[in-house]
């Protein structure tokens, strides 16, 4: 596990409520992406949101995860603090920091 001091600006969320079928439907995928982007912009300067899909070349094991890239570690920490433990669709959102180098290489495992 990466600590905030070792890391920087990438916060990873585990959204088990995002189903693989939702990720396959392009319109549903775009709606999910827009909703998450809108919600998570409130925590700071959000640079990008990545929701991995197998059809986009990411490993199947990463489906259901969301990666948020913020401009500062403070913004990422705020997102982690607020979203981690939040309940959605009877599921608890898990949040942790993720290695920025791996994120930039699109190595999301």
Features:
6 strands; four-stranded antiparallel sheet; 22% strand; single chain; globular; 109 residues
Tell me about this structure.
The longest helix has 15 residues, at 26-40. The radius of gyration is 13 Å and the shape is globular. It has one domain (10-104): Alpha-Beta Plaits. It is 33% helix and 22% strand. It contains four helices and six strands; from the N terminus they run βααββαβββα. The chain has helices at 20-24, 26-40, 73-83, 100-104, and strands spanning 10-14, 46-50, 65-70, 87-88, 91-92, 94-97. The two termini are 12 Å apart.
What is the topology?
Elements: E1 10-14, H1 20-24, H2 26-40, E2 46-50, E3 65-70, H3 73-83, E4 87-88, E5 91-92, E6 94-97, H4 100-104
Antiparallel strand pairs: 1-3, 1-6, 2-3, 4-5
Strand content: 15-25%
What is the class in the CATH system?
A: Alpha Beta
Unreliable residue runs: none
Total tally of structural domains: 1
CATH-assigned fold name: Alpha-Beta Plaits
Write the H/E string, N to C.
Answer: EHHEEHEEEH
Count up the helices.
4
Query: What is the CATH homology-level superfamily?
Result: RRM (RNA recognition motif) domain
Quote the average pLDDT: 83
Number of strands: 6
Q: What's the end-to-end separation, in Å?
A: 12 Å
**CATH structural architecture:** 2-Layer Sandwich
Strand order, main sheet: write it out: 2-3-1-6
């Amino acid at each position: 596990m990466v600590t905030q001091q070792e890391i920087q600006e990438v916060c990873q969320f585990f959204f088990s409520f995002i189903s693989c079928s939702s990720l396959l439907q392009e319109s549903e995928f775009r709606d999910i992406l827009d909703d998450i982007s809108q919600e998570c912009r409130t925590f700071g300067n959000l640079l990008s949101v990545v929701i991995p899909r197998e059809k986009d070349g990411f490993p199947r094991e990463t489906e259901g995860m969301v990666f948020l890239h913020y401009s500062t570690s403070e913004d990422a920490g705020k997102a982690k603090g607020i979203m981690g433990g939040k309940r959605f669709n009877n599921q608890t959102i898990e949040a942790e920091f993720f290695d920025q180098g791996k994120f930039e290489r699109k190595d999301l495992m």
